[in-house]
Structure formats: structure tokens, C-alpha cells
Amino acid sequence: MTDENNKPFNYDLIVPKSGKVDGLIFENEYVNIPMALFYRIEVELKTFEIDDEVIDTSLILDFISFVINNLKELENRAFDFPIHPEIGYIDASVYIL
Fold it and tell me: How far is 62 from 22, CA to CA, in rounded Å?
């Protein structure tokens, strides 16, 4: 990834501070999505600076489907998700305010 000045992004700036996992029961009968449990992961990042601008943001991953019986099953595990539009991809966003 590069910025508008074509400088490569310094990924060392992305340092996790804290995180949380939430659950969401979701269904949408209009597009044939049956009721299902999805998870959301939010990782708060340490404040960093780019081009003299202070950035305070989080990584937010939505609509994750884990086949688990207990949240403890997620401890010390790593997950790889496919890239959109492959089945199993997740939505992710970073908001810079």
C-alpha cells in the first residue's frame, strides 16, 4: 500500500493496544440469509502519526463466522480469510477520523 505521495506505508505504525470480540445474531429474509451467529472483532491501535497528522483508529472486522462452542476456543489461534469475493471472506474497515 502507498499513500498519495507514493511512499510505501510503514506497517510498523500499526501496533495493537486492546481488542474485543462481539457476537451478532443476523438474518435477512429479503436476500435469503437465514438467522446465524456472526462475530465482530475490533482491535484498538496505538495512536500514530502520518505526514504530521495524528491518527487514532481501530481495525474492525465484521461478519466473521466461527464454528465454536465457547469463545475460549479462539485463544491462541490464527485465522486466514479469503479475499472478496471468495466464499468465507470477511468485511474489514479502518476509520481515520
Answer: 10
Per-residue pLDDT of the chain (97 residues; tens, 9 = 90+): 555 567 788 889 999 999 998 988 999 999 998 999 988 989 999 999 988 899 999 988 888 888 888 888 888 888 888 888 888 788 776 665 5
Residue 37 has what DSSP assignment? E
**Which three cell numbers, joined as nine digits, stand for 16?**
495493537
Residue 2 lies in a domain: no
The torsion region of residue 30 among left (phi > 0), alpha (psi -120 to 50) and beta comes to alpha
Establish if 5 belongs to a structural domain. no
pTM above 0.85, yes or no: no
Measured CA to CA, the distance from residue 61 to residue 20 in angstroms comes to 11
Check residue 35 and report its DSSP letter.
E
Asked if residues 60 and 95 have their Cβ atoms less than 8 Å apart, the reply is: yes
In-domain check, residue 57 = yes
Q: By residue range, what is the domain housing residue 56?
A: 11-70+85-94
